[in-house]
Amino acid sequence: MAYAKNPYTKEMLDKVFSVLNKRYHCPESYMADFLKSGDTDTLPGPVRRVVRTVDADDVVEELLKAYFDGPQTSYVKDQEIKDSLFGIRDVLVEKGYNPVDQPIGYLRTGDDHYIPSKARPLTYHLDRYEVFKELYASYMAS
Question: What is the residue-wise DSSP string for 17-33?
Fold first, then answer.
């Protein structure tokens, strides 16, 4: 299933990730902090100026789309996270929900009501911070 991508968000992400990877140790931690809180103050100055032009939800959406569209054999640091995200996606598709928008709501707020009850057990062991780091690492590897 291919998802439409926002070219502006993709261009911005590539620019931000390029700066983070060149200048900072543990760039995935910076992005995970930003994505979890939505607060650009968690990012270094040069990155903050670029990221202020886009919403954290748009970034999470782009990362999820890339993660779900990527080949099944793509970079996976944590198989448990991958299994959970794809399991949640499959239940959402089965129920007729948007398989990207619903996880964005859960990942940004921690409220599992964005996820159908059938898939909620897949969220119980997830650390949202680690999920954001996984999405970032996977995006960078693609």
Answer: HHHHHHH-SSHHHHHHH
Q: Which residue has the tokens 């200048």?
A: 23
- For residue 66, the tally of other CB atoms under 10 A from its CB is 19
Residue 119 DSSP code: T
Contact 39, 32 (CB under 8 A): no
Residue 119 has pLDDT above 90, yes or no: yes
Structure tokens given for 136: 């970032």
Question: What is the model's pLDDT at position 115?
Answer: 92
Residue 39 backbone phi and psi in degrees, to 5: -95, 115
pLDDT at 126 over 80: yes
Q: Is the pTM of this model over 0.85?
A: no
- Rounded to whole angstroms, how far apart are CA atoms 6 and 30? 22
Domain locations in the chain as residue ranges: 7-141
Q: What φ, ψ does residue 77 adopt, rounded to 5°?
A: -80, -40
